[in-house]
Design a protein that fits this description.
This protein is of the alpha/beta class. About 40% of the residues lie in helices and about 20% in strands.
């Protein structure tokens, strides 16, 4: 945790901003010291992105207050929707002033070819390119707005590693709890137009926020009691009292103003409910020997599963591994190359796709919610006025006549949920449902899905969301390999530690050659080579070296961290501080490398013994 005596590299003081007549910030204070990794938490619409833009000086200026930056400090901002320009990714990554070799290294770290065209990128490639450029510029402060959107789990882990290795301070807006738990040491909570600060990581945030909410509720209860007493006093006739009572009257009016202010801050509660369309058959999907190839590339090879009524099945894997393809195969929407899929009886499927494809930019929210026209929507068998139903999902009546293009990513996701949940369903398919949602809405969605008595198929990169919901997890490695494990993401990784090895290394998916495909179809395989039954001398020696390094590294790291914990070290001896930081970064990197090599060598050793 950063010492409060260190001068901030970037700070806001008493910042105020109004959005039309509505105040957005009312005296916001925020400071980031060097190397501090903090998150900015708040509901959708609270102004988190706007605050980041003020900090970054990106097109938004406060009405009043101060923004202070250390002289020469480099501030880099990555927005929710980065714009990639230039002919190649290298052109884009160096456009901000990064050195050519730094840009190439950063792009490689995020699994991108520097010579790849900057046109026609996927959402994940766009995000990775923007992050690579940001790190290549070696900022003093990094401002990240929803950086994990469209990233697969392994790209998120790369981002975590890059943040750990970087010397910059960082302020992050994200809904990804697992990511924030791993990278943050401070929380800023934007609530009621002000900032509250917790000098602990996000893992401690929810308990802290709950205690504040409880204290605020008690204060509101006390205020109500005082107001009730003072109203009774006023009703007895303040006009006839002496002038000294005017002070009490002014205090009462101030209390009323405070009460009104509190009430104006009470946000509408989003109500989600879903009704089963009637009980489906016990067997929802029966898949046997499912195989699918596109050209020379195998997406799924000989995969079998049985999904029963009430199961919550999560699909995970690198971007492009074929998760959405597998969903379509399981739903019978895509032809199989081999195998069979049988769907259960009485299925009513509700599908929310990753690309928000159901939303047309040319229609309004009203039109989207009432595709048949009129002013009502049939919600689980009962007619509701469209304005009343939209309000349950936190949309105002004024927004209903606005085009869908006016909505933020989180609002678009809520709109899709609103229409999908209006229809009875007993098989819900959600493809990346957590993108752009704030944590309050995520909690509501999680509660809804936990109580849903139908079957759920979930495609997600949100590790925490999967751990909380999934009864089983299906993983795809992008090369045809598929494995299913009971439980969530953590259970999958515990039981299949080497399954994603290629994805973690950043290797691209290797297509299956035609000759290999023919071999799979019955050609006689070549005679097996004679196998060794033990590790080579070189591998055995390296295995022992890794074991020794793994054993001694924690003590070395702890000692370096203890040295850096001295709050006066940076100001007293910056050279020693820098030297210790470099030593700590190297010790952590060496330990991680040793652990990976040890795991690979142990797997190799076991394979040789089994062969």
């Amino acid at each position: 945790m950063a010492s409060p005596t260190r001068a901030p590299v970037l700070a806001l003081k008493d910042v105020r901003l109004a959005d039309g007549a509505k105040p957005l910030f009312d005296g916001v204070d925020l400071a980031l010291e060097p190397r501090v990794r903090a998150c900015l938490v708040g509901r959708n619409g609270a102004g988190k992105s706007t605050l980041l833009k003020i900090l970054a000086a990106q097109g938004v200026e406060a009405d009043s207050g101060e923004r202070a930056v250390q002289p020469g400090a480099r501030i880099v901002y990555v927005s929710q929707e980065p714009l990639i320009t230039g002919e190649t990714l290298l052109d884009y990554a160096t456009a901000g002033g990064a050195q050519d070799y730094e840009a190439q290294a950063a792009l490689a770290d995020f699994g991108l070819d520097p010579n790849k065209s900057a046109k026609g990128l996927s959402g994940g490639e766009t995000r990775r390119a923007a992050l690579a450029r940001a790190f290549a510029e070696q900022p003093d402060v990094l401002l990240l707005d929803e950086p994990t959107n469209h990233l697969d789990i392994f790209a998120i882990q790369t981002l975590e590693d890059e943040l750990a290795a970087s010397k910059c301070a960082a302020l992050i807006v994200s809904h990804d709890r697992a990511f924030l738990n791993r990278v943050t040491e401070r929380c800023f909570w934007l609530e009621h137009r002000k900032i509250r600060r917790l000098d602990k990581g996000f893992a401690e945030f929810e308990a802290w926020a709950d205690s504040i909410i409880a204290a605020d509720a008690e204060e509101a209860r006390r205020l109500d009691k005082v107001l009730e007493r003072e109203n009774a006093w006023l009703a007895r006739g303040v006009q006839g009292r002496r002038a000294r009572n005017e002070g009490r009257r002014r205090a009462l009016l101030a209390l009323r103003a405070e009460k009104k202010d509190r009430q104006s801050e009470v946000r509408g509660t989003m109500t989600m409910a879903v009704e089963s369309a009637g009980t489906s058959g016990k067997r929802v999907v029966e898949a046997k020997g499912v195989t699918k190839r596109f050209g020379d590339r195998t997406i799924v090879e000989n995969f079998s599963t049985r999904i029963l009524r009430g199961d919550r099945v999560a699909l995970v894997g690198p971007n492009g591994a074929g998760k959405t393809t597998l969903v379509k195969l399981l739903l019978g929407e895509l032809a199989l190359d081999a195998g069979s899929v049988q769907l259960g009886t009485n299925l009513e499927v509700s599908y929310i796709d990753q690309g928000r494809m159901a939303l047309s930019d040319k229609i309004t929210l009203w039109d989207f919610l009432t595709p048949g026209g009129g002013d009502s929507i049939l919600v689980r068998g009962q007619a509701k006025h469209v304005a009343g139903y939209a309000k349950e999902f936190l949309f105002t009546e004024a927004q209903l006549r606005q085009p869908v293009t006016s909505l933020s990513g989180g609002e678009r996701n809520r709109l899709l949920l609103a229409r999908a949940l209006a229809n009875p369903t007993n098989l819900m398919v959600l493809d990346e449902p957590t993108n752009d949602l704030d944590m309050d809405t995520l909690d509501l969605l999680e509660d809804l899905l936990a109580d849903f008595d139908g079957t759920l198929i979930l495609v997600s990169h949100d590790r925490d969301f999967i751990d909380r919901l999934a009864s089983s997890t299906i993983a795809l490695d992008g090369r045809g390999g598929v494995v299913e494990t009971p439980g969530g993401w953590t259970d999958l990784m515990d039981q299949n530690p080497g399954f994603f090895k290629a994805a973690k290394s950043g290797a691209s998916f290797a297509p299956v050659s035609k000759s290999a495909a023919k071999s799979d179809q019955g050609a006689a395989p070549p005679p097996p080579a004679k196998k060794s039954v033990k590790l080579s001398y070189k591998d055995q020696r390296r295995l022992e070296e890794c074991e020794a390094l793994i054993a001694k590294s924690p003590a070395i790291i702890a000692k370096l961290e203890e040295t850096l914990a001295d709050p006066t070290l940076y100001s007293r001896d910056p050279a020693t501080f820098d030297k210790t930081m470099k030593a700590l970064d190297k010790a952590r990197a060496d330990l991680e490398q040793a652990e990976m090599e040890w795991l690979e060598l142990e797997e190799k050793k076991e394979g040789l013994a089994a062969g």
